[in-house]
Amino acid sequence: MQDFPNFLRGIEILETMPNEYCFFNLYPMTFNKNITLLIGENGIGKSTLLESLAIKLGCPAEGGSRNFQYKTEDTHFEATEHLRLIKTGKLISDIFFYRSETYYNFMTEMRKLDEDIEGGTRINTFYGGKDLHLLSHGQSMKALYQNRFKKNGLYIMDEPEASLSAESQIDLISKIYELSLQGTQFIIATHSPILMAIPNAEIIEIGPRFHRRVKYKDTSAYYFYKKILDSDTDFIESLID
Asked: Signal sequence span per UniProt (predicted)?
């Protein structure tokens, strides 16, 4: 398997970046493989980073492909315009931004657009053919990656584990790994130690104004989950006493 990303090599700051955006001191950031996992504490900036990437690539801040142009709230980070994407020059067959917290908004927009289609192909045909609002959160997420994701695409995913059981996360890993071998690139923010175990993925930990590459067993998620599973309830009790 290749050890370099197919489409997006990284992000850097333009000279026009205002000094008040000190958060972006963590750039430049490079992506060295087709699967990049971003980890870090809540509020550290993983979602902001992915949102910036998605907007720069033409996707809505709330999720969807470049064909979706909708907005329920204007909350995206203003510094996005001061970032530059480092690309390989290869053509991307498809781009999609999955954001777990606003996936409902995306499904609502799809339903709205499909209601306005007269005699044409409904958009949900490309997501399994069902109204995703009629499925559970987990089922609608599986409909997305099982039907919509394809080779030579670029997929940005913010906490895809939010709606998935452990077994379904394994199914997602299988899909991601299979597509990565076919030239698809994934950039994923996650707290899941299951997703962090994706074979041949690069893990980047984000901290206050820094980022670093870490190995799976050196992540805090691996440490805490292993402690919890190895000690029954003892470890949790020691933390809350």
From this structure: none
- Using left for φ > 0, alpha for ψ between -120 and 50, and beta otherwise, residue 240 falls in alpha
Which run of H or of E encompasses 156? strand 153-158
Q: What are the strands of the beta sheet with 29-30, ordered from one edge? A: 29-30, 8-13, 83-87
pLDDT digits (tens, 9 = 90+) for 37-86: 999 999 888 988 899 899 999 998 889 888 887 777 666 566 688 889 99
Query: Which backbone phi and psi does 117 adopt, to 5 degrees?
Result: -80, 130
Query: SS3 for 172?
Result: helix
Q: Which residues pair with 187 in a beta bridge?
A: 36, 156
What are the tokens at 130? 């069902």
> Cα–Cα distance between 148 and 94 in angstroms, integer?
9
In this structure, are residues 67 and 125 in contact, taking their beta carbons and an 8 Å threshold? Answer: no
Q: How confident is the model at residue 3 (pLDDT cuts 50, 70, 90)?
A: low
What pLDDT score was predicted for residue 17?
Answer: 64
Q: Determine the average pLDDT of the residues in 8-15.
A: 87
What six digits make up the tokens of 89? Answer: 């020059």
Name residue 157's beta-bridge partners: 98, 188
Range with the poorest average pLDDT among 25-29, 109-113, 125-129: 25-29
Q: Please identify, in words, the CATH class of the domain defined by 8-240.
A: alpha beta
Residue type, 230: D
Lookup: tokens for 66? 């470049």
* Whether the predicted model's global pTM rises above the 0.70 cut: yes
Task: Report CA dihedral (17, 49, 178, 92) to the nearest 10 degrees.
Answer: -40
